[in-house]
Amino acid sequence: MNFRWLNALLWGNSVALSWMWGLGLFFSVQMTFMFGLQGLLMFAIPNALGLMLFGFLTHRVAESHSGGQESLAIFFDKFSRPFRLILYIYQIVALALTVFALVNYLFIPLKLATGPLLGLYLCLIVFVILAAGCLFGEEFGIQKIKLSHAMLGGLLLGCVAVILIGLDPLVPTPFAWTSPFQDEWRGARFYGYAIPLMIGLLVGPWLDLQHWQRAIQIHREKASIRASYFFGGSIFFLMLLFHGCLALWVMTEHGGQFAVSRLDGFKYAHDLVTQYFHQNYKTLGGVMPLAYFSFLAICVLTTLDSGYIALKWFLGKNVEKSENMLISLIPKQILGSPIPTFLLVGLVTLGGIWAKLELEYFMVFYASFFVGYAALAIARCFVPNSQQPLPQIRMFSMASMSLAIFAFGYLKSDTALLILGSILPLVYVMWLVFNADLLRVVTERAGEVIEAAAEIPGLKAIAKTVHVAAASDVVAPRDHHALGGHFEGKWFVYSMIATYQDTNSVGNVYFGMYGLFVGKTRELFFNVAMPDFDLKTTKFYILTRSFEHKFVREAREFDTITVKIKVADFNRKFCTLEHQIFGSENELLGKGKQSLLFVSSKDYALLDIPSEVYTAFMKYT
């Protein structure tokens, strides 16, 4: 038990360090500068709560799905499919934001190079930062990262101790609840920041690959995701509190002369503490400034190595599954490597510095663009209609519109537009989920009513007709078709006529025959989908893992039985087929599903789904 708690604590430390990216590092200083202690707490509390809620809810997801220690990994494979692009973009923006913040608010204020050499200097600095992230990510991996982060966390704790001991006075003047500067930021402007930040920070972790990979690994190690993220949120909160209070101490004791006005007319103070330590380097003896600079470097490094590991895991997994012809022309070693993505991050960083952007210009995405996707991701984890197709175009349009509204509100200092840009995606997602869920409930209830009505002889004909319209079933063919079956869209269809041998003593088709009908149709589907499959040379066998069937109505001798079957779902190891059986009048006789697994033809060892099966089944999903 003690080991499990220690494991959860180690993972919690890793969670906190990986989440202490550019947003947590430098925006905590800006919020403290703008709104004082209330701004710092407004930023830190929902940030930490967002981590804890992610851990609590993913723990529930892992426990509620089958698969044992792999349950969360299996769930994520299915869950992430429609979000793959947005998960990737989220990671790029997060990493670019982090590198940009470190360069812009640490290295540039130090003025180690000026003039013509500045551009070359910045390129080298960006390259070194990214290379360090790649090196640490490649060296440790997800299984060892909690140990490397434990060592780095110890160094970070030492840096914090040095800074706290060196504070003069050790107990500073009582911190101001509101900022001692910039009166124009008080009042309504506070809520223009508070509400979008609360929304974005509470849902933010759900699109972060680093957290999903950590949660999956924690569950594999039989540790508690809930406890790990509780520790992580708590440690992260203390780190934010330390950094924000350090900024408040600089403001209170030494004034706010380090804030500068930018092109948009706003005053920024992200590098407030950096500027103070740089200007007072000799006075402070060099130890405190070096401790602070090391603190920043450790926080960024533990974000970049986590990003490298998460991208390597995510890209490698998706490249292996991809059947896109254009992608197949590029070596998988390149597509599955995070290095091209890190190079892109470097270009975005240098472009942002050249354009003289600020951290807020990256953060706009997390307060508006990503909000709708993150909210829908949460809904798809817990709302029954999670299998509905993701409306990609509508979601992207709404995300882009909310981004534009929020950006316009930020530049115009309009509180209403800032709030609207963050709330609008949430409202749209609730509308999507509510309508889809309502449609699902109505459809299910309609089906139950029709099935019940069908038992009344006088309503039987009406029930059959209504069923066809309400359930939107594919109409079974009335004429003869190919002996081997045929396709109607993604459904493979095969028809037969029930005869005496299929019935029981009272003339109804024997219940066991329906499973045989489905099995026959499945074999014919395999024959069409994989015509080159040969039992004599195959390296794998396809076995039935489970079979479910719901009986709705009975069929009799000489009724036409039509079986429809399609690929409903698949993950790394298992494939699910869905089937429906119809009678002579297109009435639903029954429906169900079956799960398939794949084993080696030599020793019957469980295999991942073979590439031949992926290729054959992909076009029917």
Give the overall form.
elongated
Question: What do the pLDDT scores average to?
Answer: 83
Counting H and I runs of at least 4 residues, what is the number of helices? 19
- How many beta-strand elements? 8
Task: Summarize the topology.
Elements (H helix, E strand, L loop, with lengths): L1 H18 L2 H43 L6 H9 L4 H27 L6 H50 L21 H16 L5 H12 L4 H30 L5 E2 L5 E2 L3 H8 L7 H35 L3 H4 L3 H4 L3 H16 L4 H24 L9 H21 L2 H39 L6 H12 L14 E3 L2 E7 L13 H19 L10 E12 L8 E11 L4 E8 L5 E13 L10 H7 L4
Antiparallel strand pairs: 1-2, 3-4, 4-6, 5-8, 6-7, 7-8
Helix pairs in contact: 1-5, 1-7, 1-8, 1-10, 2-6, 2-8, 2-14, 3-7, 4-5, 4-10, 4-13, 4-14, 5-10, 5-13, 6-14, 6-16, 14-15, 14-16, 15-16, 16-17
Explain what the structure shows.
The protein has 621 residues and is of the alpha+beta class. It has 3 domains: 2-380; 383-472, no CATH class; 474-620, Thiol Ester Dehydrase, Chain A (Roll), CATH 3.10.129.10. The protein is built from 19 helices and 8 strands. It has a 6-stranded antiparallel beta sheet with strand order 3-4-6-7-8-5, with helices on one face. The protein has a two-stranded antiparallel sheet with strand order 1-2. It starts with a helix and ends with a helix.
